[in-house]
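so ive been stuck on this for like two days lol. basically i have the seq below and the ligand is zinc ion, smiles is in there too. i just want the complex predicted, nothing fancy, no docking runs or whatever. if the output looks off dont worry ill sanity check it later, just need somthing to start from for the group meeting slides
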Amino acid sequence: MRSPSELTTVFRSQGMKLTPQRQLLFRLLHGNITHPSADALYLLASAHMPGISLRTVYQTLNDLASMGELQQLALGTGSARFDPNIGAHHHTICQRCGEVRDVYLTGDMPAYVQDLAGFVVDSAAVVLHGTCAQCRAGESTAKSDNRRNNVVYNKENST
Ligand SMILES: [Zn+2]
Ligand SMILES: [Zn+2]
């Protein structure tokens, strides 16, 4: 996605309406790595500009997506997610906290797929489901607490 000021120029040159609401949405989306849904972006925008309408959010997202400034992703998380990173990449989704992150594959996708039967791949999107480092850290703290208890227990036994 281009910068807010570049987008402003593009929108103007195409005769599209350019309101402060839209400019706020450009700023909130530029460099945004959270892959927001329309609802999530609406909440964020409302905090900056109370009274902004959900319709404006949808309209702006659709315009940016059709201009190729945003990728619209169906990640199986319910509502569509929007991604200003329009380069080829893939995603991880944390099953605990729902965090969506960008990941990159080395090598070409078809190399990993068997039985393509002459099918020619134009594009591929990999979604890796799992648990993020932060959620796993919460888990391992609990585990190491148990281990510490075990050590204490063993010491008491040995004395
Ligand atoms: Zn997580
Ligand atoms: Zn992404």
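The chain has a mean pLDDT of 86. The first strand starts at residue 71 and ends at 73.
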